[in-house]
Design a protein that fits this description.
heterodimer, A: mainly alpha, MetI-like fold, two-stranded antiparallel sheet, 14 helices, 2 strands, B: alpha/beta, ten-stranded mixed beta sheet, 34% helix, membrane (chain A), transport (chain A), Phosphate_PstA (chain A)
């Protein structure tokens, strides 16, 4: 049978109305409606006095209403609902993105001028010039960068093994409904909700008992951060381990492989990409903590790379201190806070990139 | 070369918690034979199959009462290590399950590598080749051994799983509906393979396909269940030709002739 025959047969048939059609708005109607509502809203506001926020809000409302009205007249109710809800979803998305983009813009645009090599490579301090009797205050972030890395690093070293091993216990060893597993899950849930300042107070009072007064140290702050980090690591690792198909465990057991080897070489190996992602999210969550570090490690402008003695600074604490207790040159102090904020954002982005690379490297081969 | 072994089951009951899933099974499986388990879904064929290498213990609450002897050694005797049992009694599952993080060659070597045994490279290469040849897969994959196991087709993956199982040189090979997820061509490939493996291994296969049972097996066991919540039982166990042409029990005849199930 050739296409010619089909064509002839189609031509021979009398054209007939298709009972499956319904009314349809023009193809780019949504764009026209958007342009129209922006225009009408601008016109309305020009009478009452123009401002951008009011203009956007008014156009969004006009757009949704007109879209619903036109669609329900020309098309049908289902299509109208579909268009209005799709519009609402887009509006919600834009609302969610606005604070994100505006924060990022604010941080970067204000912070970049503060960033130079001196800011990164020196710590804050004051110099006294004896000939002019003038004190110059220098702002640097080196002590905070080092402090952030050390404190977060120690917190990660404490939390990751504890968190992942707890998740392994919950998923691989505990039988469903076991009282111990239920207790652990409950405690993890409770820990997730602990306010960070409470974690800081806990670490501070713990080290006050152990070390005595003036117990400020980077390690103490790390302990506070691990209190916050462990539940996040447990939760995310648990979900990741649950995703490993039971069939892979069975395949391994059926080869006469012990439980230990099955868990370390099959289950954890298969889940490693997800585990790394979960750990990274936990680190990103605690690296910007301020209150617990402020309480447990205090703050300091001196360079200190010893986590066990003396106060330590982190980028988040430096931001807080520079805003709350500015030096004599307030503008310069504020600028150093913005610079520290940009550094913190850059640090988180770098860690995320590393995590993505690691996750991609370990991802199951078929999925790459 | 593996030494094929005789399996003897005496009055075996399988429980899930308090629930009796399979009741009173006794049978003897001769070495170098293929035995097929047939019966309606939920009658306990797979459950019983798993008790032959203690794989049922993976399910919480599952336990057995009775005896399973492999060449006279009780699998459920005191002090028996299930890990050692499973090294002698290998298993192939319903859905092909190659390890997604490993290449084709590594999947074959998984039993060795995961057990922390060191093996010189040349021995490992030999083992990969003989196992894949044993599973009739070598010619199809010999040029891409480094590719992930999941890059193969379903039928090839299943043969890869069989190669993986025979690479640890078990004495007995259990197969739980190995062809139910495969197309007829792949099924034929697996059935041919079973025919060859029979020369060296004792094979037990669960199948829903009665033609498959007649094609591959020497003896057939028919399991049935009286109703939901009742335990599954072994109804009849005989040579395949007897079961399918001249069974002793009416229920067997009804089942194999398609009157129910």
């Amino acid at each position: 049978m050739s296409t010619g025959t089909i064509g002839k047969r189609g031509a021979a048939r009398r054209p007939q109305a298709n009972s499956l059609t319904s009314g349809q708005l023009p193809r780019f109607f949504e764009l026209y409606a958007l342009a129209g509502s922006l225009f009408v809203a601008a016109g309305l506001l020009a009478i009452m006095g123009f401002n951008v926020v009011g203009w956007l809000v008014a156009s969004a409302i006009l757009y949704l209403v007109s879209l619903g009205a036109f669609s329900s007249i020309v098309e049908n109710r289902r299509r109208a609902t579909d268009r209005v809800v799709r519009g609402l979803v887009i509006v919600a998305f834009l609302l969610a993105v606005i604070p994100l983009v505006s924060t990022l813009w604010e941080v970067v645009s204000r912070g970049i001028p503060a960033l130079d090599w001196d800011f990164i490579s020196t710590s804050s301090g004051a110099t006294f010039d004896p000939s002019t009797l003038k004190v110059t205050v220098r702002y640097g972030a080196l002590q905070s960068i080092v402090g952030t890395l050390i404190i977060t690093g120690i917190a990660a070293v404490i939390s990751i093994p504890i968190g992942i091993l707890t998740a392994v216990y919950l998923v691989e060893y505990a039988r469903p409904g076991n009282w111990m597993a239920r207790t652990v899950t409950f405690l993890v849930d409770v820990m997730t909700g602990i306010p960070s300042i409470v974690a800081g107070l806990f670490a501070f009072s713990l080290f006050s008992i152990l070390v005595g007064p003036k117990a400020f140290s980077g390690f103490s702050a790390s302990v506070a951060l691990s209190v916050l980090m462990i539940p996040i690591v447990v939760r995310s690792s648990e979900e990741m381990l649950k995703l490993v198909p039971q069939e892979l465990r069975e395949a391994s057991y059926a080869l006469g492989v012990s439980r230990f080897s099955t868990i370390t070489k099959v289950v954890l190996r298969t889940a490693v990409a997800g585990l790394v992602t979960g750990v990274m999210l936990a680190i990103a969550r605690v690296i910007g903590e301020t209150a617990p570090i402020f309480i447990a490690a205090s703050f300091s402008n001196n360079f200190n790379a010893d986590p066990f003695h003396d106060p330590m600074n982190t980028l988040a604490v430096q931001i807080y201190a520079a805003f709350k207790f500015p030096g004599q040159d307030v503008a310069q102090s504020f600028q150093s806070a913005w610079g520290a904020a940009v550094l913190l954002v850059i640090l988180v982005v770098i860690l995320n990139l590393i995590a993505r690379l690691v996750a991609r490297f370990f991802a199951p081969r078929g999925l790459r | 070369m593996p030494v094929s072994k005789r399996i003897e089951v005496n009055d075996l009951n399988v429980y899930y918690g308090d629930f009796l899933a399979v009741e009173g099974v006794s049978m003897t499986i001769e070495p170098r034979t293929v035995t097929a388990f047939i019966g309606p879904s939920g009658c306990g064929k797979s459950t019983f199959l798993r008790t032959l290498n203690r794989m049922h213990e993976v399910i919480p609450g599952a336990h057995v009462r009775g005896e399973v002897l492999i060449d006279g050694n009780d699998l459920y005797g005191p002090g028996v290590d299930p890990v050692l049992v499973r090294r002698q009694v290998g298993m192939v599952f319903q859905r092909p399950n190659p390890f997604p993080t490993m290449s084709i060659a590594d999947n074959v070597l998984a039993g060795v590598r995961l057990n922390n045994r060191r093996m010189p490279k040349s021995d490992a290469d030999d083992l990969v080749e003989t196992s894949l040849q044993g599973a009739n897969l070598w010619n199809e994959v010999k040029d891409r051994l480094h590719l992930p196991g999941s890059s193969l087709s379903g039928g090839q993956q299943q043969r890869l799983c069989i190669a993986r199982a025979i690479a640890v040189s078990p004495d007995v090979l259990l197969m739980d509906e190995p062809c139910s997820a495969l197309d007829p061509i792949s099924t034929l490939a697996i059935e041919d393979l079973i025919e060859e493996l029979k020369q060296e291994y004792t094979i037990v296969i669960v199948t829903h396909n009665m033609q498959q049972a007649t094609r591959v097996s020497d003896k057939t066991a028919f399991f049935n269940i009286a109703g939901t919540g009742k335990p599954g039982k072994l109804i009849e166990y005989d040579t395949t030709s007897t079961i399918f042409t001249n069974p002793n029990v009416q229920a067997t005849e009804d089942y194999v002739s398609g009157k129910f199930g």
